[in-house]
Amino acid sequence: MKQKHRLYWRLNLVSIFFIVLSFISVTLAWFAYSGLSNVSTDVDVKAWYIMLEKNGEEISNDIVISLSEIYPGMETLDEVVKIKNLGDSDAKINYSIVSARILGDPKDNYVVNKSSVTSEYVEDLLSHDYPFHININLSKNYVLAKGDESKFEVSVSWPLDSDHDALDSFWGNEAYKFQQSEANRKGANENYQIRPSIQVVISVTAEQYMEEDDDASDTRFNLGDTVLFDVVDNKICTEISPTCITTFVADVNNKLSESTVTLIPSPKNTYLSGTWNNYNSILSTITNEWTVETRALYVEDVLRIISSDVMKSLLIRENLSDGIIGNLRYGDRIDLELEKATSYNGHYTFINHTFNYLSSNICYWTNSKYNESSSFAIKRVDEEHTKVYGLANNTSCNIIPVILADKINL
């Protein structure tokens, strides 16, 4: 194996600012007309108070996360902001990137305009297109009244060896040149404000949660929520039986506009097992008497779920640094991510306690090929981790159907 050139020096150059703008954290009055029969009826005034909290302390509207140094092989940095709703009205939460500047080259300066440059596009490139990776996740797109909370999390990482030494060297040099240029400007004008090497502006907004808003999250079905479902009666149930099984919500953000909920039966249930080559026939046998709509489980289903952990869901490849999976929501990014794994004989890992509804001591198949002779399977590897990996097709593993349940039955 060729000797790889690695970057070990630290670049004490980059100061990254994540500025959360326009987040309402003061008490507002909402006028909610509750079942009014005419306009002369008194209106209810509801108090809305959204609090942002970091490390147990309340913080202001502008959240600044500043990094004094960033370098290849750095320990992954993570910041968590808790968004709490202390009022008596539910709130819908969203975030979007306003702009991003990488050093001083105009081609790496992005201003979101919602047409040619979208927030989703910029978030994707920050997650994947630079040797350093900036990942963002919002645990829930709403916060219910009276103390409910959501978590806004940001991680920054720079793998030591991602098999792109040229890129690491290029961006290390560019960062050095940018910092020198900023220092020279400061030397020429003491009033000059040195710019951070990277600056990302994020707008987080809160607005009243309306059940008439089709784009709002359905608060009844959060990712990982437990649902007891009778697959023969095709409805929710209350007591475990051969047909009333434990399932978990698999939609990352199920919305009010959606008529169905995706449910994954617990991998700890009892299933038929077999080789991947017999996947479809075994799946048909399992669901033969079920009346609910079902389909196969795909590796994309699993990656969409576990990538929401922007700290500890990782891509593992031999002789390369582990990397955070990151944002997979934009375009064909999930396909490109899978190519990164299969082309290097790699696999994915996630934390058991974070996604306990996906962890099993017995392997189970997805209906997704890894290469010509193997396919993606899932199995717990130790007390902390479960892996998503390529397994020979002639291996016997459980097969788990995915349920598409009508909300009217839940």
Could you characterize the architecture of this molecule?
With 410 residues, this protein is of the alpha+beta class. Helices cover 15% and strands 34% of the residues. It has an eight-stranded mixed β-sheet with strand order 17-25-22-23-24-21-19-20, with helices on both faces. The protein has a six-stranded antiparallel β-sheet with strand order 14-13-15-16-26-18, with no helix packed on it. A hairpin with a 4-residue loop joins strand 13 and strand 14. It is globular and about 80 Å long. The N and C termini lie far apart (56 Å).
Rounded to an integer, what's the Rg over CA atoms?
24 Å
Across the major sheet, the strand order is: 17-25-22-23-24-21-19-20
Instruction: Work out the helix count.
Output: 5
Mean pLDDT: 83
State the low-pLDDT regions, or none. Answer: 1-48, 59-65
Largest sheet: 8 strands, mixed
Supply the helix-strand structural class. Answer: alpha+beta
- Helix fraction, binned, reads 10-25%
